[in-house]
């Protein structure tokens, strides 16, 4: 059984449908190792496609998603003194949004495009620098907590 050896890290295309007794194959092959290049599929089928400009738009999109995940991880949107039930529901909603966006970044990285990987790491880094590190934070009051959500832990 050949497991894609000798195919440059790319898996053979799966059969898509049977037409008149012949099997038709997808023309796009999915990479199974990191690669450099602007011809990649990131998150959606045929996006960004072969347009180099759209590739850079997808890189910016992944970067912005990663920064947004870090902002949600360290922001304070719920006011102190709010109802416990309302605060709990708001925290749960914010957690669901943060996890969903984090999974989108992870799925983008699973395109195995090295550029996408680098901008995802850069986005998380810039987001943490802006929202999680001490560089841009004012000193908290004695009773004030840092954020509404606890940071994601490994």
From TrEMBL:
Biological source species: Malus domestica
Keywords: Copper, Copper transport, Ion transport, Membrane, Transmembrane, Transmembrane helix, Transport
Ranges that cross the membrane: 53-73, 85-106, 112-131
Highest taxon of the lineage: Eukaryota
Any one of the GO CC terms: plasma membrane
Protein's cellular compartments: Membrane
Database matches in InterPro entries: Cop_transporter
Family (UniProt): Belongs to the copper transporter (Ctr) (TC 1.A.56) family. SLC31A subfamily.
Bilayer topology annotation: Multi-pass membrane protein
The protein's name in its UniProt record: Copper transport protein
GO molecular function: copper ion transmembrane transporter activity
Pfam families named among the record's database cross-references: Ctr
């Amino acid at each position: 059984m050949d497991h894609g050896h000798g195919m440059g890290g790319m898996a053979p295309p799966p059969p898509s449908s049977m037409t008149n007794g012949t099997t038709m194959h997808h023309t796009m092959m999915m990479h199974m190792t990191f690669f450099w290049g602007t011809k990649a599929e990131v998150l959606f089928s045929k996006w960004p496609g072969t347009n180099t400009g759209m590739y850079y738009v997808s890189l910016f999109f992944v970067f912005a998603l990663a920064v947004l995940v870090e902002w949600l991880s360290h922001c304070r949107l719920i006011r102190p003194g709010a109802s416990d039930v309302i605060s709990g529901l708001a925290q749960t909603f914010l957690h669901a949004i943060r996890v969903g966006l984090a999974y989108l970044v992870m799925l983008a990285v699973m395109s195995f495009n090295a550029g996408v990987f680098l901008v995802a790491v850069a986005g998380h880094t810039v987001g943490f620098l802006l929202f999680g590190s001490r560089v841009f934070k004012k000193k908290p009051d004695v009773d004030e907590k840092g954020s509404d959500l606890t940071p994601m832990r490994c």
